[in-house]
Design brief:
The chain is α/β, with parallel strands linked by helices. It has two domains: 145 residues, Aspartate Aminotransferase, domain 1, CATH 3.90.1150; 274 residues, Type I PLP-dependent aspartate aminotransferase-like (Major domain) (Aspartate Aminotransferase, domain 2). It is built from 17 helices and 15 strands. The strands form three sheets. It has a seven-stranded mixed beta sheet, sandwiched between helices. Strands 1-2-3-13 form a four-stranded mixed beta sheet. Strands 11-12-15-14 form a four-stranded antiparallel beta sheet, covered by helices on one side. β1 and β2 form a beta hairpin. α4 packs antiparallel against α14, α10 runs parallel beside α11 and α15 packs parallel to α17. The radius of gyration is 22 Å and the shape is globular. The termini are far apart. Bound molecules: 3-[O-phosphonopyridoxyl]--amino-benzoic acid.
Length: 465
């Protein structure tokens, strides 16, 4: 028998990196390339800050991975997990059983979601939630005697997860290229990215035009074959792409006209990120299904799910019989207990209102000022998510050759200066914890400016600017 592995908190960075590259295959990673560099090992966190194994303090402007909405170190969440682990660490919700945290969370979610939502189906992640969406949407139309309505329309450059269904719904062509995706019955239309596709038009004109691509796609597929349309209210992993204000209301109108279901993937936009509880509230539409994950527990423990609107719930409950679908961890009691503590904390601290009326507006003002920087062609933020578009030429809005990986260069400067930002191509992304203060926003914006300056200097030295 192997010796019992002891935790080794005192290992050096080099020792962590050696063990990491020997055994750990990281997500979305070139394994060989990472092994040659070594991972940055994060060892602790508090509020909006992380510390690495060298003791370096880092401002986490990405909330972990768009999820630590209440910030790190919240005692109420830690206590909720500890108490539930002692009381009942696990029981399932199959075979006509349930646990108090899962029941209470279902009840609370019905209260904090738009009025059409009174039921929830739990999963372990956002990807699994979107697998549930595919199964439920198709089952709904089956039960109504229209099984031929099975096609789901999504968008290019959307991110809906990494399971087979999630990656198929998503519109990342490099993901489709690995594993024969998408699965049949999922089609994609162009994204509402004004900066790339809408130049020469007003944002509002472009928003209507981009929404009408949905109608064109419905007619191409056949209106009687389309089951649903899915989209993120604001695309997150695709680069914080904020659609024009005209886009979502027109999408809603088209879905209503053709009777197709509307699915909002709220995995990033949910739980206050955009200054309302839900991104669909900020963008002005009324979905039939909402996928959530991440912010439901502020990432302290995995949990996801799907809010099921009354239109679908009534059919599934009254006429559907058994729904042949579920996960071992659907309604995991510890995850649900943490989610309850997390949502109550958001309510108690008024975090959603704070983002809408205070910190979101404050960030927008300072972010807009970054658009003056010689490298930035567009600066956009909604609530506490934002993007800076790096450009080669400000006047024309021309971008750098993508092979130059200018975004990665900038991300390197962020890493070196104690700031975590995400680079999506040449778009620099932020989504800081919702507890961030005005003073911390000042620090963050100052750090961003410093990193943009350093990136510009590099480009000038290489003769690229
Ligand atoms: N939907 C959306 C809108 C997401 O952003 C998922 C579904 C999948 O959730 P899970 O819990 O299965 O990961 C996501 C996840 C990035 C990045 O690089 C974004 C996500 C995940 C990993 C990386 O921005 N979003």
């Amino acid at each position: 028998m192997n010796a019992v592995l002891q935790p080794a908190p005192t290992r050096t960075t080099a020792e962590w990196q050696a063990a990491d590259s020997a055994h750990y295959l990281h997500p979305f990673t070139d394994f060989k390339s990472l092994a040659s560099k070594g991972s940055r090992v994060i060892t602790r966190a508090d509020n909006i800050y992380l510390w690495d194994s060298e003791g370096v303090k880092i401002l986490d402007a990405m909330s972990g991975l768009w999820c630590v909405n209440v910030g790190y170190g919240q005692q109420a969440l830690i206590d909720a997990a500890t108490a539930q682990l002692k009381q009942l660490p696990f029981y399932n919700s199959f075979f006509q059983t349930a646990t108090p945290p899962a029941i209470e969370l279902a009840e609370l979610l019905a209260q904090v979601t738009p009025p059409q939502f009174n039921h929830v189906f739990f999963s372990g992640s956002g990807s699994e939630g979107n697998d549930t969406v595919v199964r439920m949407v198709r089952r709904y139309w089956d039960v109504l005697g229209q099984p031929e309505r099975s096609v789901i329309i999504s968008r290019k450059n959307a991110y809906h997860g990494s399971t087979v269904a999630g990656a198929s719904l998503g519109g990342m062509s490099y993901m489709h290229a690995q594993g024969g995706l998408p699965i049949p019955g999922i089609v994609h239309m162009e994204q509402p990215f004004w900066f790339v596709h809408g130049q020469g038009k007003t944002r509002d004109e472009f928003g209507l035009e981009a929404a009408r691509w949905l109608e064109a796609k419905i007619l191409e597929v056949g209106a009687d074959k389309v089951a649903a349309f899915i989209g993120e209210p604001i695309q997150g992993a695709g680069g914080v792409i904020v659609p024009p204000a005209t886009y979502w209301p027109e999408i809603q109108r088209i879905c209503d006209q053709y009777g197709i279901l509307l699915v909002s993937d709220e995995v990033i936009c949910g739980f206050g990120r955009t200054g309302n509880w839900w991104g669909c509230e900020t963008m002005g539409f009324r979905p039939d299904l909402m996928t959530f994950a991440k912010g439901v527990t502020s990432g302290y423990i995995p949990l996801g799910g799907v809010m099921v609107g009354d239109r679908i719930a009534r059919v599934m409950i009254d006429q559907g019989g058994e729904f042949e679908h579920g996960y071992t961890y659907s309604g995991h009691p510890v995850a649900c207990a943490v989610a309850l503590a997390n949502i109550r904390l958001i309510q108690r601290e008024g975090l959603v209102d704070r983002v809408r009326t205070d910190t979101g507006a404050y960030l927008a003002e300072h972010f807009k000022a970054l658009a003056e920087h010689p490298l930035i062609g567009e600066a956009q933020s909604v609530g506490l998510m934002g993007a800076l578009q790096i450009v080669k030429d400000k006047a024309s809005g021309t971008c750098f050759d993508s092979a130059l990986e200018v975004g990665m260069l900038c991300r390197g400067h962020c890493f070196a200066n104690g700031l975590i930002m995400r680079a999506v191509g040449d778009r620099m992304i932020i989504a800081p914890p919702l507890v961030i203060t005005r003073a911390q926003i000042d620090d963050m914006v100052e750090l961003i400016r410093l990193c943009l300056d350093a990136t510009l200097r590099d480009l000038q030295q290489r003769g690229l600017r």
